[in-house]
Amino acid sequence: MSISEHTTTAHALTFGQRGFLSRFGPSNRTIFPWVLMAPTLIILFAIGIYPFLYSLYIAGHNVILSKPYIPQHFVGLYQYQAVVQDPEFWHALRKTLLFTVQAVFIEFWLGLGLALLFQRQLQGVAFMRLFILIPMILPPLVTALVWRYMFYPGAGLMTYYVGAVTRALGLGEIPFLSDPVIAFQTLVFVDVWEWTPFMFLMLSAGLASIPRQPYEAAEIDGAGSWRVFWTITMPLLRPAILIAVIIRTMDAFRTYELIVIMTRGGPGNATTTLNVFLTKTGLEFFDASKAAALSLIMMMIIIVMSFVFIRVFRSKTEVAE
Amino acid sequence: MNVMKTTAALAAGLALWTLALPVQAQTEAQKALSGTTIHFLAPSMPQFAALGKFLPEFEQKYGIKVVVDEVPFENYRQKSLVEMQQGTGTYDFFAVDVMWLAEYAAAGFLEPLMPYVKNTDLTDADYDIDDFLPRVISGTGVFNDTLFTIPIGAGPVGTTFRADVAEKAGFKLPERFSPDFTTQYMFDAAKKVNNPESNMIGFANIPGRWFWGVTYLPYLYAFQTPETKGDEYVDKDWKISINNERTVASIDYFTSFKQFMPSDSANWGIGEATAVYQAGNAFGTWNYQDFVKGFFEDPETQAKVAGKNVHLHTPVGPNGVIDPWFGAWSLGLSKDSKNKEATWTFIQWLTSKDIQARATQYGAGPSRHSTYKSETLAKYQPWWPGVYEFMLKETNPDERIRVPEWAEISDIMGEEGNRVWIGEIDSKTAAANMEKRMTEAMRKGGYYIPGRDDLPKQQWRDLTYYDRLPSSWN
């Protein structure tokens, strides 16, 4: 083969390759967007879709990780049936919903109150805003550990000082983490302490985005502050409320570190939420299939809840508009 | 001058002592392992801290580096099982609680050790596997007739009381294993001394949900009759048999100590109860024999109670039955280890006669005949020798049924029992709930498959199984 033949072949190859690659280039408006999105889609598949599909597979079988000697086979919907027939699931679901509703409700109103307060140009507002955000900045693990020691029997700061007051009043010690009802409310209290700043932050941003004109018009009309709040502030704040409440509801529904570190689901099963039940099933009893079914059921509950929220808020916003 | 003389004498003494230590020559195979690094996963507990003091000595002698990752006890089983299940061999060996052996071994996560024990290229000539107490090694490390782990200390659960407080109250506590130390005696003594106004509670019990599988069981056994021993959890056909009046009575007894404890005690674990006792605010508490030195008798850290204690077994029940089980930790070689020979070299060195005896000065417990008879143990932990006969003849390693389902059974017991403690349900309901839920756990484990004829043998019904010479296991 002569040099010129070599050159011609190389030239043809290069052009051939360019021709092949050019099919995926910007000129191809059908394929090029997919090329650009490919890295993201691959990562999404690897960390989102594949695990989801694998969860579906596991939930359809009988996999117990600590018993690899048990033959695995397809069991259909048995694992889902096992979950919904387990009284512990319904108990944990009740506790989870109660925890979520209480925590999000209190956090919302406290956060809104703070956001309205900080909207006024008071002295030291910038410093106070930073101060208020500290609980949210702390890792949940640290928060849980700090509060666990605050409530430590006989030695914790809260136990000591609150105990001193209650003893003086003749009420004795308060069993913060030992009484089923009080332990549950203690967890709600700590969650509120940690996440009210998030509500405050979101609602502050929402308030800042409301235009001044409606307020000016209301002032001219002589509307009182209560009426302004319910007829202007709240309707116009709805998009921010929707986002804040959905995010917090999903988070509160999945609360884990706080409960596991402070009470581990006890005393008895008084603070066993779905996530604690899930962890026990999957990582203490290593029943991977039941845990996978449970996690998929939890996912469905969260999706349905979010859907309901969006529908309700959207319809109310449309009415307001 | 005196200082110099003293120093010289000490140096000479130290040199002589060092020379007197048994010196093991390394084999060629052991020498070839120099430069290897092995990884160990262990819970944060006193006995592992005691053994940790010997790592530099091993590394210097064999040139094998040992990296230890410690995990809080409450997270240990989860972490170890996840690591084993992944099969990456990140950890070459694991600490194995006596109750988890069945789960680990049945799943094939551990390497059988007898071939290593018999490998003279890797095992020191004076290792002497038959020096281990038969019931300790079989109860701790044997599953399906195969040796999977080597114990690093084993002892019964017991009780610790303040002798000085009893004396002030006008009575003297009985000796260990005395038939006079009954469940009724223990309750009456706690009641007599109980005085919360003076910061002295009668007994620091451990009712936390996750501890019932250890702290409640001595009473479950104590309330059996001689005829029902062995039937605490399952009958001969593996049917759950816990729902009965004996269980109810034992729960009632265990929870009766609530009257002596503060209102915030429902979640108390070993840490809380021990802290209250160490602070001098409790007359009695739970002990595990391996913890006694570290938790109650260290004059530096437990100045208020060290030297004032009486360490007893758990009490004899109303029908004359005493709790026969023991707790133990052992070392198991991962089947996925890439450094099996180096790891075994370490395990056999750490569990050798010499190291086991020397470790007792730091609080480690004995599992060898030679350790029980060593002067070091007698000097540093004089409360141990009395346990020797019990560990040889009385103990029943399988009294807590060692089945892969134990973790679930234990959790169920803890949850239902703790609900009684907080007043949510009564003991009869708890026993009924336990039976129902444990049955489901066993059903899931395949025990009730119709026609199944390969169910494991209930070894606890014939203790001669555990008395086999250690070297006779596979």
UniProtKB/TrEMBL annotation, chain A:
Q: Keywords in UniProt for this one?
A: Cell membrane, Membrane, Transmembrane, Transmembrane helix, Transport
Segments traversing the membrane? 31-53, 97-118, 130-150, 182-207, 228-247, 291-313
According to its UniProt record, where is this protein mainly located?
membrane
SUPFAM superfamilies per the UniProt record, alphabetical: MetI-like (SSF161098)
Q: What membrane topology was assigned to this protein in its record? A: Multi-pass membrane protein
- In the UniProt record, does the keyword Ribonucleoprotein occur? no
* Record's subcellular location: Cell membrane
| Entry-linked InterPro entries | MetI-like, MetI-like_sf
Keyword Cell membrane recorded = yes
> Residue ranges of the ABC transmembrane type-1 domain?
93-309
**PANTHER family from the entry?**
BLR7065 PROTEIN, INTEGRAL MEMBRANE SUGAR TRANSPORT PROTEIN
As for family, the record states:
Belongs to the binding-protein-dependent transport system permease family.
- Protein name per the record: Sugar ABC transporter permease
What organism, scientifically named, is this protein from?
Answer: Rhizobium herbae
TrEMBL record, chain B:
Keywords per UniProt: Periplasm, Signal, Transport
A Pfam family this chain is assigned to: SBP_bac_1
Q: What is its main location?
A: periplasm
Say which domain of life the source belongs to.
Answer: Bacteria
Task: List localization entries.
Answer: Periplasm
Ranges in coiled-coil conformation: none
Signal peptide residues on this chain, from the entry's feature table: 1-25
By sequence similarity, the record places it as follows: Belongs to the bacterial solute-binding protein 1 family.
Its name, as the record gives it, is Extracellular solute-binding protein
Q: List the source organism.
A: Rhizobium herbae
The organism's taxonomy opens as: Bacteria, Pseudomonadati, Pseudomonadota, Alphaproteobacteria, Hyphomicrobiales
